[in-house]
Design a protein that fits this description.
alpha/beta, seven-stranded mixed beta sheet, two-stranded parallel ribbon, 9 strands
């Protein structure tokens, strides 16, 4: 069973945005349970908040039975779900992870260690993928230089509550890319105080490849080829693509 916070404020709130995730949420929560046991054994406190983003399946019931705090977020935007979960959370540190992921057993300990360093404003664990193929590896190689250069990564993303509030959380006007903008905003805030973003070592989350399973292992490249000329003629094509790709999923 997922750990509940001790009386008083939790040290870490793990926020999980979820839309119709009854199939994959349990395996994430299993991995959270393992990480929570390690964390609690060291005196840590944790709450898990599932931001149910207008699901029509048993996502909310599964989360509730597993001991999570469940908050309903009606607006179908990943940024809205993350912000809604954060608003319901009471942790000193906010961490965010997608419902189709699984976290490393040492994640919570590593996040706490990073957040005790005053030189760090925020960070991420990074990810490894649950399967590989030539197309998936090519996509990864396309993205990894930006990750290294900007020190912005994905997986479990974390920051202090006061910094989340100071940058206004995730930008709910964005249909996609809100995660990059969020870390960019935190990075800019940190620069004024001599702080930096960090990429944790040795605690990568396991990321789902279901988008590749559904759209094909080379779909990033084929989609870019189709999308580029459309954007030149009509910039709104980007939003239309995002709506189909991220929000019209019939899972």
């Amino acid at each position: 069973m997922t750990s509940s916070p001790a009386p008083g404020r939790a040290r870490i709130s793990l926020v999980i945005p979820a839309y119709n995730e009854e199939a994959l949420l349990p395996r994430l929560l299993d991995s959270v349970d393992v990480a929570a046991r390690t964390w609690v054994a060291r005196g840590g406190t944790l709450e898990v908040v599932v931001a149910d983003n207008a699901s029509t399946d048993d996502t909310a019931q599964i989360a509730s039975v597993r001991g999570c705090r469940v908050v309903r977020v009606e607006r179908r935007r990943i940024a809205s779900a993350r912000n809604g979960g954060a608003a319901a959370a009471d942790g000193e540190v906010l961490a965010f992870v997608d419902a189709d992921s699984r976290i490393h057993p040492d994640t919570l300990v590593a996040v706490d260690r990073a957040m005790r360093d005053p030189r760090v404003i925020a960070g991420a664990t990074g990810v490894r993928l649950e399967r590989r193929s030539p197309g998936i590896v090519a996509t990864w190689l396309l993205l990894i230089p930006l990750v290294i250069l900007l020190r912005m990564d994905t997986g479990v993303v974390f920051c202090r509550r006061e910094d989340f509030d100071a940058v206004g959380g995730y930008d709910e006007r964005r249909a996609f890319g809100e995660d990059v903008q969020f870390l960019w905003d935190l990075r800019r805030r940190g620069r004024t105080r001599g702080q930096r973003l960090v990429r944790l070592r040795g605690t990568k989350a396991l990321a789902s490849t279901r988008k590749f399973d559904r759209h094909g292992d080379w779909h990033y490249f084929t989609s870019l080829l189709r999308l580029a000329p459309l954007i030149v003629r009509d910039p709104s094509a980007t939003t239309e693509f995002a709506e189909r790709y991220w929000y019209d999923d019939d899972r």
